[in-house]
Amino acid sequence: MRRQLFRIEGVKSVFFGPDFITVTKENEELDWNLLKPDIYATIMDFFASGLPLVTEETPPGEAGSEEDDEVVAMIKELLDTRIRPTVQEDGGDVIYRGFEDGIVRLKLQGSCTSCPSSIITLKSGIQNMLQFYIPEVEGVEQVMDDESDEKEANSP
Asked: Which Pfam families does this entry report, sorted A to Z (predicted)?
């Protein structure tokens, strides 16, 4: 479905959450009333086809592993239970990318990537919560992927 949505002129990004789809338009001048019918038709046609939306694979770095030390396990647990559900309510997501020298590396996805308050969310919300529960966390850093890599990596 992602590839089909990207074929619609004016679609900048597509993100699938657990129970939502976030579509971002290329610029503010584009009228949602012009984009919405094509987006809606593409989504409805796809679901009518019966094909799976995504595979059940866990993204790299998401699942806990036996190699995770106690601090990394606590970071992932806090992300999954407290932080991600809140961010997902706003049409985005947070992906764990690593922990080194006291810095947690996170990738923001969905509506969070284009939201003007994403840095505030990252620093004031996520960083403060991680530091409150996990003293080893000294800061949070946003990881930016190349947009074309993101499109390909998330295509079903």
From this structure: Nfu_N, NifU
